[in-house]
Design goal:
With 175 residues, the protein is mainly α. The chain has one domain. The protein is built from seven helices and two strands; from the N terminus they run αααβααααβ. The longest helix is centred in the middle third of the chain and has 34 residues. The two termini are 33 Å apart.
Length: 175
Amino acid sequence: MVLPIVLVKVVLRSNLKDFGYGLPKTVKSSWGYFLLFLLVLPLVYVASLQDSFINYYPIFKSIIFRKQVAFHHLIIFELFYGLYFLSGESFWRGYMLFGLRKHFGYYSLFIMVIPYVMSHYPKPFLESMGAIVAGLTLGYLALRHNHFWFGVLAHWGVAIAMDLLALYQLGVTII
């Protein structure tokens, strides 16, 4: 997240708000993200039934011991994982999307989503394909609301749900 901010401020000499870094003016626009989160949950559940999902998630398998994970370890991991989504959303839906918007308008969504989906290639196939729809949707909402912050929360929320469903499918107990 630091590199895009430095590029915007120092190299481009632009305002961070022009790249989606401005805080939301109201929480009224958050309902769309929450609805998106709720719509994705059943799909995440279905994905959690796939072997490819269980083989990949949770990515913190190293903190699981004897089919148990400590609650405080899970919370610490998920908080740091949130920083990962903050960084990703600030790059894909912030720096890249808003930077391209000046020249390509809403077509910037399609330019941004190609490398975004490519970043999902090591993940399960269904997730990589879902990244097309998710990337376009989160990008559209970011452009419409002039920020990516609620996208961070939605993306992070889906990731937490994926981890919890993976734990459930693997029979791991949170202690």
